[in-house]
Amino acid sequence: MPLTDTAIRTAKPTDKAVKLFDGGGLYLEIAPSGGKWWRLKYRFQGKEKRISLGTYPTVSLKDARERREQAKRLIEQGIDPSNQRKEAKAAAAAIEQEQNTTFEAVARDWFSKKRNAWTPGHQKKILSRLENQLFPILGDKLFPALEPADFLTAIQKAESRGAIETAHRLAQLCGQVSRYARIVGLTRYDVAAGLTEALTPVQTNHYATITDPAEVGHLLRAIDEYAGEPSICFALKVLPFVFVRSVELRGAEWREFDFESATWIIPAERMKMKRPHTVPLAHQVITLLNDLHSLTGSGRYLFPSLFSASRPISDMGLLNALRRMGYAKGVMTIHGFRSLASTLLNEQGYRADVIEAQLAHGEKNAIRAAYNHAEYLPERRQMMQEWADYLDELKTENNLA
User: Fold this and answer.
1) What residues contact residue 33 under an 8 Å CB cut-off, 6+ apart?
2) Which residues share a beta bridge with 42?
3) Has residue 104 got a pLDDT over 50?
4) 361 is catalytic
5) How far is CA 105 from CA 145, 299, 386, in A?
6) Catalytic residue among 36, 65, 270, 338
7) CA-based, 20 to 30 A from 383: which of 8, 135, 184, 364?
8) Does the structure show a pLDDT above 80 at 254?
């Protein structure tokens, strides 16, 4: 007797599996757990076989009967429904696998594994290069089929418009994704290796800086005499003493400072290398910060924007101030304060490891990096105070040598 919806709904599980037959090999199997499975029993080439047609109520009685008829039509055509299903699953899996091996899929997988080690700004930059410059050309190509010429076509787009450095960065990015693809078994070798050999060489431009002591003194006096927005003025006065990166200085928050220990700890998420960085503060910096606190201490940032206290000053604001003081692009930059400090501290005989630690340059060995942080801090604190005293001496010199 054929099944009815009422009979199916009211059927109760027992301690053993129960089968309710509908006819034509279709039956509903009720498991002791309460699950209801549609099954189809049929014979193919003399052998009895079974396949599942889904679960009730997701698959209704009407749907189950339609699936039974579809299976019968396959059998009449000499096709085993079970084998046909396996082949369909294999084909779907192959399509899915193919979709997962496109350049875009592989690059996004690589990006997802790397992004947590980068600052938000760097994440945005890398993703933009992928989405705007590489995916439009390489995105839907299967990685195992990619050749060096494919990558070269993509990166030469940037080169053709004169963006030589960008082209080299894209080549580097392609290489990183390609090496990841090799590691996960999608290609036998780094198919993007050596791309820069086919590109116009980059003309290296170092950040302009001043390293002559007399000229440094002149620069410091120009900063002291500069009359501009308070946040810009104080940021420029603090920067030579701490020589951190511009983004680290501009985003400084009052909560990061411990005035009792004269220490500024920049959190990992704001650092290029994603590690906290300690900046010992000379007494000259403490004096500047106390003066600044009366102006901006009620807010979040030390150097809030003139237009909105909810965001800090911009790099362009600092750079424009330098230009107004008469320092052209080829003479001095904001990043140049780091080169200035590095050059003069090395000339004065401070240990290179101590200077590098204070500059927060990357240490490949994470254990050594942590050790250096603890081992060098007393030396760094002494160096930073002596550096501040040295800058004061340069600033008070009356004559340029």
Assistant:
1) 13
2) 49
3) yes
4) yes
5) 14, 43, 53
6) 338
7) 364
8) yes
- What's the confidence (pLDDT) of residue 291? 96
Is 28:20 a contact under the CB 8 Å cutoff? Answer: yes
In percent, the amount of the chain with pLDDT more than 70 equals: 90
Give 190's contacts (C-beta < 8 A, 6+ positions apart): 175, 178, 179, 182
Whether residue 202 has pLDDT greater than 60: yes
Give the SS3 label for residue 49.
strand
Going by C-alpha positions, the residue among 375, 369, 391, 379 that lies closest to residue 349 is 379
3-state helix, strand, coil in the chain (%, to 5): 55, 10, 30
The yes-or-no answer on residue 335 being catalytic is yes
245 is catalytic: yes
- The CA distance from 49 to 181, in Å, is 42
> Can you tell me the distance from the alpha carbon of 1 to that of 8, in angstroms, rounded to the nearest whole number?
13
Q: What is the mean pLDDT of residues 116-145?
A: 86
Which DSSP category does 347 fall into?
Answer: H
Q: Which of 122, 157, 335, 395 is catalytic?
A: 335
SS3 of 84-126: HHHHHHHHHHHHHHHHCCEHHHHHHHHHHHHHHHCCHHHHHHH
Q: Find the radius of gyration of the CA atoms of the chain.
A: 34
> Which residue out of 68, 237, 245, 380 is catalytically annotated?
245
Tokens (6 digits) for 138? 């390489």
pTM, 2 dp: 0.52
Domains with residue ranges and CATH for the chain:
5-94 (3.30.160.390), 103-198 (1.10.150.130), 213-396 (1.10.443.10)
56 is catalytic: no
Question: What token pair was written down for 375?
Answer: 């081992």
